[in-house]
Amino acid sequence: MKTQTQSGAHTAQPPRGFSLIELLIVVAIILIIAAIAIPQLLRARIAANEAAACETVRTLTTASMAYNATWNNGYPPNMQSLGGVAGALATCDQADLMDPVVASPPYQKGGYAFGFTATGTAVIPPSNCGAAGSTAYLVTATPVVEGVTGVRSFCSDEPGVIYFDTTGATAASETACESLIQLQ
C-alpha cells in the first residue's frame, strides 16, 4: 500500500509484522526438528546411564577385591561395608572404598539400582569386623525405569567379568549372571 505525501510522491509503508501463515510455518519447522531430536536425546541419555552403570559395577568389583585383600574377611558381607563416613578412619565395617551415594540406601545412581549379595560360604571374621564376609559375591545393576533410564542390566562376580542382559532383568545368582553375554 502506498501513501501520498504533500509533495505528491508515493512512498511504501513498512511491513507490519509476520503473517499468521509465516508463524505457523515456523512453529511447524520447530516441531519437526523437536520430533527428530528428542528421541535421539533420550537414546543418548540411556547410553550414558548404561556406561555409568557398567563403570559402577566395575568399581564395586574392584572395591570388593580391595576389601578382600585389605581386611582378611573374605569379600564384603554387604554393600554398606564398602562405604564409609567422610573423614573417618576406614574399618572392616566401613572400608571407605565406594561412593557413599552407591553404598547407602537406596543404592541408586544415574537411573540404575545397584545390588550386592554375599554368596558362597561365610568366613570367620577377624576380631575387628562386625560381620563375617564370604567366599563369593554378586554385583547387579538394573535400570530403575526400564526403557527410560536404561535398557540393559549388568552383573559381575569374583572373577571380575561384567555380563549384561538385554532384557534388563536382574541376575538372580552367579550362575545366572555367568550365563549372560560377556561385556567386551
What features would you describe in this structure?
By secondary structure, the protein is an alpha+beta fold. It has one domain. Helix content is 33%, strand content 22%. The protein is built from three helices and eight strands. The protein has helices at 20-71, 100-103, 174-178, and strands at residues 2-4, 10-12, 108-109, 112-122, 134-143, 153-157, 162-165, 181-182. A six-stranded antiparallel β-sheet has the order 3-4-5-6-7-8. A hairpin with a 4-residue loop joins strand 6 (153-157) and strand 7 (162-165). The radius of gyration is 29 Å and the shape is elongated. The mean pLDDT is 91.
Helix fraction, binned, reads 25-40%
**Number of separate structural domains:** 1
What does the overall shape look like? elongated
Structural class: alpha+beta
Number of strands: 8
Q: How many whole angstroms does the radius of gyration measure?
A: 29 Å
Order of helices and strands: EEHHEEEEEHE
Report low-confidence residues grouped into runs of 5 or more: none
Question: Helical element count?
Answer: 3
